[in-house]
């Protein structure tokens, strides 16, 4: 190629293919190469009918590709291909290490564009039929994660979130119980409503409902946890039949 290609950092949304944005679907159909996260669904990947697909995803507790290697792959792909898609679960700017990849592309002089997607906290609220904000109950929303990378100092800033806000925890299923205990120790009411949603927007999606003092020690799989009084009016039984309402032992 005479000129470098362009890299599109695209949000894949929560999983369901029909929750992709129109721009995301168009770019996937045009892509020569797609570097995708591990949790991107097969239905979404199938939209990239002509692309070479490379799984560069990270999964908690499993051996995965270092971020530096992903950055190099993006640069190399743009040198040899016109349209490169870096496909990230949810929205690229929410716990997606977007800044590191943008920096690598900028240093290499490669054109790039960020295409937003539906982040899991918003998708979980939609699936549950709840509002993350509620007049008189929750006037703000906090997106946080207790997860820390290898070599990073552990932090508890997320536990300092305002108890009058709705707290949305990403990548917290493995420490579900510990997170709840930390919040209670920081002044959150033990009766604060909690909803944990696994495999958001999928036919195999499951929901755990309870309060902070009832949560199990852990929930396996990709889980997003919503905590706050705005969830008090949630009506789990109103979910579509395909979305199973389960108890903690089934999810653990």
Secondary structure: elements and pairs:
Elements: E1 6-11, H1 22-30, E2 33-36, H2 42-45, E3 52-55, H3 67-80, E4 83-88, H4 98-108, E5 111-115, H5 120-128, E6 141-144, E7 166-170, H6 176-185, E8 193-198, E9 206-211, E10 223-227, E11 244-245, H7 248-251
Parallel strand pairs: 1-4, 1-5, 2-3, 2-4, 6-7, 9-11
Antiparallel strand pairs: 7-10, 8-9, 8-10
Task: Give your account of this protein's structure.
- The protein is an alpha/beta fold and 252 residues long.
- The chain has two domains: 110 residues, Tetrapyrrole methylase, N-terminal domain (Cobalt-precorrin-4 Transmethylase, domain 1, 3-Layer(aba) Sandwich), CATH 3.40.1010; 132 residues, 2-Layer Sandwich (Methyltransferase, Cobalt-precorrin-4 Transmethylase, Domain 2), CATH 3.30.950.10.
- It contains seven helices and eleven strands.
- The chain has a six-stranded mixed beta sheet, covered by helices on one side. A five-stranded parallel beta sheet has the order 3-2-4-1-5, with helices on both faces.
- Helix 3 packs across helix 4.
- The protein starts with 5 loop residues before the first strand and ends with a helix.
- The C terminus is likely disordered.
């Amino acid at each position: 190629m005479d000129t470098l290609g362009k890299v599109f950092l695209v949000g894949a949304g929560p999983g369901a293919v029909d929750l992709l944005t129109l721009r995301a679907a168009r770019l996937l159909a045009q892509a020569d190469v797609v570097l995708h996260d591990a949790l991107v669904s097969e239905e979404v990947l199938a939209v990239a009918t002509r692309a070479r697909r490379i799984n560069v995803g990270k999964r908690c507790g499993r051996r995965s590709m270092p971020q530096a290697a992903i950055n190099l792959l993006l640069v190399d792909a743009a040198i040899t291909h016109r349209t490169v898609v870096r496909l990230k679960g949810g929205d690229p700017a929410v716990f997606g290490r977007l800044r590191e990849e943008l920096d690598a592309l900028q240093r290499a002089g490669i054109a790039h564009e960020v295409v937003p997607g539906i982040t899991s906290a918003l998708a979980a609220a939609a699936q549950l039929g709840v509002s993350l904000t509620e007049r008189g109950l929750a006037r703000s929303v906090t997106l946080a994660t207790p997860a820390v990378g290898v070599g990073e100092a552990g932090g508890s800033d997320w536990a300092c979130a305002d108890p009058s806000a709705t707290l949305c925890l990403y990548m917290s299923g493995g420490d579900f119980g510990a997170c709840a205990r930390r919040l209670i120790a920081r002044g959150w009411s033990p009766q604060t409503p909690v909803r944990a949603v696994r495999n958001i927007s999928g036919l195999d999606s499951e929901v755990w409902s309870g309060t902070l003092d009832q949560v199990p020690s852990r929930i396996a799989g990709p889980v997003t946890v919503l905590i706050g009084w705005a969830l008090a009016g949630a009506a789990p039984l109103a979910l579509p039949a395909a979305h199973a309402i389960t108890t903690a032992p089934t999810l653990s």
